[in-house]
Each structure stands twice: as C-alpha cells, then as structure tokens.
Amino acid sequence: MTASDHMHDLVLRAMIRDDALGYPAVLDLVPSDIPDWPSIAWRHLADELHPVLVVDDRGRETLFTPAPRGYLARRLDRVRRRVPVDVTRRGERESGQGLHTLVDRRAIERLATSDGPLPAAVAR
Asked: How far is CA 111 from CA 2, 11, 26, 48, 96, in A?
C-alpha cells in the first residue's frame, strides 16, 4: 500500500468510528508519497501553525504539533527557519513517549521516515 492509501484508510476509520482517534480537531494530513511532502508539512507547521500528521508507506503515523510561542519568539523561529514541535507516533503517544525539539524541513523528513523509536537524545 502507498502512503496515500494508508491515509485514505485512516480518514475512513475516523469517519465511521464512534470513538475518536485521539488527534487534534484541526489537523493537516500529509502522505509521504507525494512530491515535496516535507515542504508541504513545513508550510503547515511554520506558516499556519497547524498540527501535521505524516503517514508513510508502512502506515506509520507521525504527529508534529507546534508548541505555543509568543509573537516575538515565533518571528525569531521563522528567521532561524525552525519551529518548536512535539513529535509523537501512534502507539507511543499513549505511553508518554515522544520528543520536543526544533525542526526544519530536513528534520521533518528524517523524523517521519526513520525506523525505530524517536531519538532518545532529545526525548522528553
């Protein structure tokens, strides 16, 4: 299955299930099989400050949630081209695993497509 197929299944599950999947009400979905998906995810995180769910071709869901910041801190982050986010994956969120870090376009791609658990060096 492609990442788009996995995302389509996720949306269908969310529509027909009675219980919520546990994601924020406002959420941008980005499959990792579309061209330039890291830039699309970056735009939603940096410009719109929306949480972004990246779905890869194995069906793994990685959620990037922008951390709340003041106006000046957001402007400084924009100049530095980095955004502070909380990163979690389905299954790790319930156990309290995840990390808080600054990401740029390359970091989004690396974290969303890496195998294994999220890096422990920057874990919360």
From this structure: 19, 22, 21, 20, 17
